[in-house]
Amino acid sequence: MQTAVSSNSSVSPAVGFEALRDFIARALGSQGLPSADAAKVGELMAQADLQGSDGHGVIRLPQYIKRIRAGGINLNPDIRVVSERAACAIVDGDNGMGHLVVSRAVDLAIAKAREAGVAWVSTRYSNHAGPASLYARKPLEHDMIGLYFAVGNANHLPPWGGMDMLLSTNPIAAGFPAGDEAPVVLDMATTVAAYGKVKAKAKKGEMMPEGWMIDRQGKPLLDPKRADEGFLLPIGGHKGYGLALMVGLLAGTLGGAAMGRDVVDFNADHQSVTNTGQSILVIDLSAFGDPAVFKASVDALIQQIRDSERLPGVERIWLPGEQSHDRRERYARAGIPIAAGLFAELRELADSLGITPLVAGSGV
Amino acid sequence: MQTAVSSNSSVSPAVGFEALRDFIARALGSQGLPSADAAKVGELMAQADLQGSDGHGVIRLPQYIKRIRAGGINLNPDIRVVSERAACAIVDGDNGMGHLVVSRAVDLAIAKAREAGVAWVSTRYSNHAGPASLYARKPLEHDMIGLYFAVGNANHLPPWGGMDMLLSTNPIAAGFPAGDEAPVVLDMATTVAAYGKVKAKAKKGEMMPEGWMIDRQGKPLLDPKRADEGFLLPIGGHKGYGLALMVGLLAGTLGGAAMGRDVVDFNADHQSVTNTGQSILVIDLSAFGDPAVFKASVDALIQQIRDSERLPGVERIWLPGEQSHDRRERYARAGIPIAAGLFAELRELADSLGITPLVAGSGV
């Protein structure tokens, strides 16, 4: 068994992408997930960390393991298409790992879009699958646009004017191919702050800015330790409420997955079938003209935006996804930073599972 | 020639739907728009007023007439499909009235979705087509979901951190069939306030709330009369910027329509071809299961939301589209209120065109 270095330091240890991917695969494999599936989930979770979506990467591993041990995940699911037409399908995930279910859905949507020009695939009986942008990005390599909608795995958002948390942070992600520039990749919760950001503030002992949450009197809630006394706020008030509802209807209700009161809080309940729903829309650029023309237009637009006049004090105008893109290249070279506390937690996890722990080092 | 009543009163005169529709058709017909096309545009514009989208209904008529007279609209366009696959198409509007171009796109998307399950149709060389919800609602009667994206016809939004207005209020609309309940219909600009709301505040001599606009120092801009010294703000800060960009890429760039610097300000320029783009996505519920099951789920969700606990002081929780739905039924019975100033302007327009003016009265 190798020994992890720097886990006793307070500096974030950096780990190589392959080391992280393989560690996740080992951990999941030790719980009985078939090795090809474990490798696939490991790859996607490590990709989340590689692009800096660190609330959705290896940080989720202990929770996934807990769910698997509680019997809340089907390790040998029959992931299958239950209804289908030329440009759409529903994939039933049979309560398998969400990453596997959504990957299947995205692959199917890409294949269908290649024929029909556009395709929509919804999942049911899926599970948490990591950051939305992972899946909206996948069609890019085929010169296709990806649009992704997901029902969040815990309700933290009431309807506008309400206190009953019937909605989640239901994210929207979109990926657009570019030419010489990095692709435009949007990935956003429909709430001002994702719940993970609230938890991060609490961990750091910091207060939240006004506008993230309100309490049961409708007053600003600033102390993240009191988060369970209040609710997240949607972006743009009633507009974000409308968006969260729209995403939930598209990603949940349409495919027969959970929405509203049926959503299972996967932080509190590790056992119940979540019946999580996601939807992916794939648009094949070649059905709309020459993909090179589209990509050149995106490049031109990116340059217009990047070179446009800035407000006083603003150093740079970013495109959606540009910072993740830069991070991906940087972390691939120098290793992925893992918070010291998480690194220690993963070492304990390795001990408890009896697997080789994660080893720090850039992996290059 | 009939005489309009109550135009000399400051109370808003009410007009019947048919009277409004026919007046618009007369006005457009007088400028050479073929009568079937004039009737169709009249119908859609009057429907906008009927649902209370009064910034996009008959209020636009003087501007449309001005554009037609300046040669900025092709009155006899060859609206045609220029590329096509099973689940997608591009409709080239040949610079015709936007209502006609988008109607054609929506009809085509509905027909394609009936076969393929899902269909996406983009327009190019279209024009301003009224409220987004008109088109997202159209698939509802076929038990289909509609999602609509449009590039706004004037840039009022800079990228986040910038001052260069490269983006518009690019709206998103979505319509979901329900069973016994009214359908869920979202229609929202990706900015906190649509530009029409700023103009309305200026007209009333009111200040804007903080958060609608900022000036070139990044400070809140509250006086709507100084609107041209500042910019609209996107919902949720950088998130709304990302959404506006996403909508622009989907509705403009994808179909070969204008985006970014190429967008023509149709308030200032009545002559240049706008090359406006819109996109409609239609999802046939029957491709995903029994539409009755979907609609029953939407009903149940609506009831959960409506009956949920309210914040202190909140009288009712609304669903997106519910207020428009109520208004549509009320105005159909009692007539559509037209602001006195607009009513007088329409009377002058009728005089100048030599057509029978709009007559007040519920029309019932």
Reported by name, the CATH topology of the largest domain in chain A is: Ribosomal Protein S8, Chain: A, domain 1
Radius of gyration of chain A: 21 Å
Q: CATH top level of the largest domain in chain A? A: Alpha Beta
CATH-derived architecture of the largest domain in chain A: 2-Layer Sandwich
Indicate the overall shape of chain A: globular
Order of helices and strands of chain A: EHHHEEHEHEEEHEEHEHHEH
CATH superfamily of the largest domain in chain A: Malate/L-lactate/L-sulpholactate dehydrogenase, NADPH binding domain
Number of helices of chain A: 10
Report on the biggest sheet of chain A: 7 strands, mixed
Indicate the structural class of chain A: alpha+beta
The tally of strands of chain A reads 11
- Mean pLDDT score of chain A, rounded? 94
Oligomer: homodimer
Structure in words:
Chain A has helices at 17-30, 35-50, 61-69, 98-116, 132-137, 195-204, 238-251, 291-306, 322-334, 340-353, and strands at residues 14-15, 80-85, 88-92, 118-124, 144-150, 172-176, 184-188, 213-215, 230-232, 278-284, 336-337. In chain A, the strands form three sheets. In chain A, strands 2-3-4-10-5-6-7 form a seven-stranded mixed beta sheet. In chain A, strands 1-11 form a two-stranded antiparallel sheet. In chain A, strands 8-9 form a two-stranded antiparallel ribbon. In chain A, 36% of the residues lie in helices and 14% in strands. The longest helix of chain A is centred in the first third of the chain and has 19 residues, at 98-116. In chain A, helix 4 (98-116) links the parallel strand 3 and strand 4 (118-124). The first copy, chain A, has three domains: 1-69 and 335-364, Malate/L-lactate/L-sulpholactate dehydrogenase, four-helix barrel (Hypothetical Oxidoreductase Yiak, Chain: A, domain 1, Orthogonal Bundle), CATH 1.10.1530.10; 74-191 and 234-334, Malate/L-lactate/L-sulpholactate dehydrogenase, NADPH binding domain (Ribosomal Protein S8, Chain: A, domain 1, 2-Layer Sandwich), CATH 3.30.1370.60; 193-231, 2-Layer Sandwich (Wheat Germ Agglutinin (Isolectin 2), domain 1). The first copy, chain A, is an alpha+beta fold and 364 residues long. In chain A, helix 1 (17-30) crosses helix 2 (35-50). The first copy, chain A, contains ten helices and eleven strands. The interface between A and B is large, with 82 and 82 residues.
